[in-house]
Design brief:
Layout: H1 17-30, E1 39-43, H2 50-60, E2 64-67, H3 74-84, H4 93-107, E3 111-114, H5 125-135, E4 139-143, H6 147-151, H7 155-158, E5 161-166, H8 172-182, E6 187-188, H9 190-199, H10 204-221, E7 225-226, H11 228-231
Parallel strand pairs: 1-4, 1-5, 2-3, 3-4, 6-7
Helix pairs in contact: 1-2, 3-4, 4-5, 8-9, 8-10
Length: 248
């Protein structure tokens, strides 16, 4: 993947830094020495674009990808991984885990587990270890900033980690890139892009929200150029909760 290349259609996120970081991590684990472990962790705060990076890389690297839900049981978690592989599940959770391990081993494809914080608990984490041990494949856990510290509770998982990679905050280049995607035909002054970066606290998700605010303002006012004078009339979202309103 060319990090400076053309934005492609897979989520329009190819050149974003966290997409590139995750891509490099997957390739590093896949191409490791056979004596090295095959688990890795990609972590960072909410809104850094980790899921976008996972979706793009799932298609780019042909990885199996599953986004964990808080309501899932152990069996549901294993079944959803197998569903991403297009395989009908066996009767028991043990059968399903063996099927997953077998498919990872035969295919050589990575497994990306998004929202992995939700399986970093007793009873669930053992499934990940069993999948890895039965496949010796590439398994990437993607989660929040404290995921590496959480995983320290389970030494048999923690010591099988090949690498820990931190997702990075967005920079001004990425704001410009996203502006080209979300504010097409609108020329935005560099200082406004800097303001968007600051107001969004360098979180990709909030940057997209604030660029949408600019696009809506431009549509309502008929403007094709946005300056700092315009920015003063736009409500940007910083993630701060609104202050309580006074009651009579």
């Amino acid at each position: 993947m060319d990090g400076a290349g053309t934005i492609n259609a897979i989520g329009n996120v190819a050149p974003l830094r966290n997409v590139i970081l995750l891509n490099a991590l997957i390739n590093r684990v896949q191409n490791r020495d056979p004596d090295l472990p095959g688990l890795a962790c990609f972590f960072g705060p909410s809104g850094y674009g980790k899921t976008k990076a996972a979706v793009w890389n799932a298609q780019e690297t042909r990885a199996y990808w599953v986004e964990v839900k808080s309501t899932w049981s152990r069996k549901k978690f294993a079944e959803m991984i197998l569903r991403s592989m297009g395989i009908a599940p066996g009767r028991t959770i043990g059968d399903i885990v063996e099927q997953i391990g077998d498919q990872l081993s035969k295919s050589g494809r990575p497994l990306l587990i998004d929202e992995a914080d939700l399986v970093a608990k007793d009873g669930m984490i053992g499934i990940i270890r069993d999948i890895y041990e039965s496949s010796q494949g590439t398994v990437i856990l993607i989660g929040e900033e404290n995921l590496p510290q959480t995983l320290r509770r389970w030494e048999r998982v923690h010591n099988r980690m090949l690498d820990w990679v931190a997702a990075q905050p967005a920079d001004l280049r990425e704001v410009g890139l996203l502006a080209r995607l979300k504010c097409q035909d609108i020329e935005i002054a560099p200082e406004v892009l800097q303001l968007v970066l600051e107001q969004s606290q360098a979180r990709a998700r909030r940057i997209v929200v604030n660029l949408r605010q600019i696009a809506e303002y431009a549509l309502l006012t008929g403007k094709s150029e946005i300056t700092m004078a315009d920015a003063k009339k736009i409500t940007f979202f910083s993630g701060e909760a609104p202050t309580p309103r006074r009651t009579l």
